[in-house]
Amino acid sequence: MQNGVIYGIDIARGSSRAQEAPRYAVAVLRDGEISHYTMVRLHRILRMLNNDRPDYIAVDNIFELAPNKKALIHLLEKLPDNTRLVQVTGGIHQKPLLRLAQEHGLSLNQFDPIQEAETCAILASLGVGEEVSLFEDITRIKVSRARSLGRGGWSQNRYRRKVHGAVREKSREIESILRKFSRDTGYRYTERITEGFGGYVRAEFTVKARRDRVPVKPSSNADVQVTVKSVERDKIQYIPLKKAGRKYTIVGIDPGTTVGIAILSLVGELLLSESIRGISHDEVVRMIAEYGKPAIVATDVYPTPSAVEKVRRSFNAVIWSPGGEIRAEDKIALARTYGYSNDHERDSLTAAIATYKSYKNVFSRVEKRAPKYLNMDSIKFHVINGDSIEEAIEKVASESKIQVRVKPEPEPVKEELTDTDELVKKLREEIRQKNSQIKQLKDYVSEIKYESGQKEKTIEKLEMRINKFKTSIYKQVKKEREIQIRDTEIERLNKELAKTRKNLKNQRRQNKRLKQIRKKEVKGEGLPVKVISAFTREAIQHTKELYGIKENDVVFLKDPSGGGPVTASLLAESKVKAVLITEDMPHAALESFYDNDVPVLKDIQLHRVGDLASVDPDILDEAIELWKEGAEKRRNEKEQEQFQSILDEYRSERRRGLV
């Protein structure tokens, strides 16, 4: 029986799966005395647990506390450190609570939640049931920013550097704690760091130890938050409770520079198999003690090495050695079942397994002869230390007595009761039941009043917070909206200003060019020529819109290759004086210019200034005259060709007798 506090809990009203929160009956076992609480809600039980910090919470069905695994995990995270949840009816294969009570000599009314809660507490104190394990022996620690950095403003980089620096500082502090923890206890850890501007964005540490052993607690401040969580198992695991307190173990040791340690329970379950180089005697003793109290310390060689004997004396345990040499083949065969990584682990496993096998028959006789409600490991421990099985059972039975008030069995009535006595007895029983109901209802009413008062206070606080949030949020939203409108208007004006400046710059450039052309025109040194970038409809239209193309204007086609009769007609309709080119023009377009009597002049010397140019009037007039002579000659040749064609056709018709 444990010396600490044990809570027995049973559902009294409702269900964990119902919308309305259920109520529970609670029995608190403390120093052999039991206190009862009725119609208690779960949040009040959690407050009681945090005050008493019990060793165990005993229930007959864990899903009376939570509807599913996720909710059960959430509940276990709220429990105090070192408080464990026990299902007294067993794990996967459960036994009825009534049968367990009968096996252990306890009276139970299965329709009374108070008695069921009391029975659960007593059974847990006897080591009956299985511990509910939802977490691996792995703890994850995460150090991160306590708030989002957001878009920020001018000081954003300085603020980011400050926050990331704080995360780095906290991470290094935790790393220092874990390094010392690992050095002192042998538990290993890994780390993963995400660096950021000026420090760390986050740091994650994975420690191969239970959360209650890790010396780091959750915390939070303005810049950094630390979360500490156990790693969840894929499915619920049930661990036999056996005995409240330390388990008795069999320890196999392979001494040397690299020490091999193997620890088995007294039922042959492997608890540890590891080899560590350069570990001291004190560290070996500390590691072994974490897994229980060694009943036997074993070695695989004979005689017993002094290092193993020193460990045995530290625990006052029984020594075991094989009495001779064990062959390597036998060691491999023994250790293969559990698996090993090197020879040191194999040899320590061999010692532990050989010891367990040598005591296996004795352990079997203990399990057959000892009562089920007594602690088997304690009986085996006394047998290992030289007691007979009967003496060991007697010792454990005397150690396991529980000082609780158990209702005595009613004595048989020696004489017959009259009808009046029967009626009085019946009425007294009804009065007792009514009084019990009244007490439960009073407790229920007081609980409801307390909860109502708490809810009113909570509602009042929340309403005040909501009003504050509304005011601050309204101001913030209004401010952000005004800033957004201002930023949008500034952006629009900046775009408009940039566009205006660009147009002004283009106009100034154009005016400057026009002035240069105009100067030459006034001096009689040049005739203005308007430059068209390409012989296309779009380019001609662009030049018309920008500079205008009117009658007697001279134009220059930078690229005359893409035009045809339609594009040529656009210039012809404007009655330009001449079209200047430097490359060959398509024949169809050239023909169109000839037909419209528009001179097309090639390789005329120009003086260009950007999109404008000028040409010497005399050279232009001379070239136009030459073109006109050539055009006249071309027309005459064309007329002669047409006449000759008509004459040939007439002669052909006469030869055929058609005329």
Automatic annotation (TrEMBL):
Coiled coil regions, renumbered to chain: 417-444, 483-517
Keywords for this protein: Coiled coil
Superkingdom assignment: Archaea
Keyword Coiled coil: yes
Membrane-spanning residues: none
Signal peptide annotation: none
Keyword Transmembrane set for record: no
Pfam families: DUF460
Protein name: DUF460 domain-containing protein
